[in-house]
Amino acid sequence: MNNRAALDIDKIKEGPIPRHIAVIMDGNGRWAKTRGLPRTAGHQKGVARLKEFIRVATQLGVEYITTYAFSTENWKRPEKEVDFLMDLFEKVFLEEVEHFNREGVKVNIIGNKNRLPSAVKKRVEEVMDVTKGNSRIVVNVALDYGGRFELVNVVKEIAQKLLDGELDLTDVDEDLIGGSLYTKDQPDPDLLIRPGGEKRISNFLLWQLAYSEVYFSDVYWPNFKKNELLSAVYEFQQRERRFGGLKGSGGE
C-alpha cells in the first residue's frame, strides 16, 4: 500500500483497528497563513475537518476519539484569538449537538471547565447531556486541558483521601490513578496522531499515552482528509505492539 490512492477503507478494516485514537489538531494557523487568511479561518476549517475525522473513524470501528481542542497554555495566545475560539466552541456545540446525537456520538468534554466563559460552559453541559446515552463512538474534547494539570489534580485528590483515612498507602497503584483521570473507564489511546509537522506530545494525555503508537504527519490539520487517517491506521497495523515485552516472551 505504498500508493496512497490505493488505500481502501474496507481493506483497512480487515486489519486491527485502534479502539482509541488521540489527535492533536495542529497546523490551523499555518494553513491559513499559507493562503493569506487570518488564523481564525484555519480554526473554522479545522472544525469541519474534525467532523469528517469522526465520521471516517466511526466507519472504521474506532470506539473512542480524544481530540486536543484547547490547552491550558492556549490562554496565552492573543486575546482576540482566544475570544474567537471561545465563540467558535459555543457555536459548534450549539449547532452540532443534534448532528452528533443523530450520528450516535457521545460527546465528553474533559479539562478544567472553571475558566471557560459561562456561555461556553452552558453549551458544554448541553452537548454532554443530550448525547450521554449514545454509544456508537465516544468523542472526548479536551478543552482547557493540560496533562500536568490533570495529574496534579489526581495527586491532590488521592492525597486528600489519604489524609482523611479513606485510602491506605497500599491502595495507591496504577489502577487507582487511572481511575481518577478524565478518561477513566476508557481504554488508553492505541494511537496518537499529530499532523502539522511538529513531533512532540505537548502536554497531552501524559499518563494515557504511555504505550500509544505515535503517528506524525507534515500535513496541516485542515488538510488531514480521509486518506490521511487511513494512512495513519494502516501504519499502525504494520507495527508490533510489545508494551515493554520482547517478541516471543509473552509481550505483544
Could you explain the architecture of this structure?
The structure is a single chain. With 252 residues, the chain is of the alpha/beta class. It has one domain: Decaprenyl diphosphate synthase-like (Undecaprenyl pyrophosphate synthetase, 3-Layer(aba) Sandwich), CATH 3.40.1180.10. The protein is 42% helix and 14% strand. Strands 3-4-2-1-5-6 form a six-stranded parallel β-sheet, sandwiched between helices. Helix 5 links the parallel strand 3 and strand 4. Helix 2 crosses helix 3, helix 3 (39-60) runs parallel beside helix 4 and helix 4 (79-102) packs parallel to helix 5 (118-131). 34% of the residues are buried.
Sheet with most strands: strand arrangement: 3-4-2-1-5-6
Whole-number count of domains: 1
- Note the run of SSEs as H and E: HEHHEHEHEHHEEH
- Which structural class is indicated by helix and strand composition? alpha/beta
Distance between the termini: 24 Å
Total beta-strand segments: 6
Number of helices: 8
Helix content: 40-55%
CATH architecture: 3-Layer(aba) Sandwich
Low confidence ranges = 248-252
Q: Can you tell me the CATH topology?
A: Undecaprenyl pyrophosphate synthetase
Q: Rg to the nearest angstrom?
A: 19 Å
Largest sheet: 6 strands, parallel
Mean pLDDT: 93
CATH class: Alpha Beta
Backbone shape: globular
Question: For the record, what is the CATH homologous superfamily label?
Answer: Decaprenyl diphosphate synthase-like
Taken as a percent bin, the fraction of beta residues is 5-15%
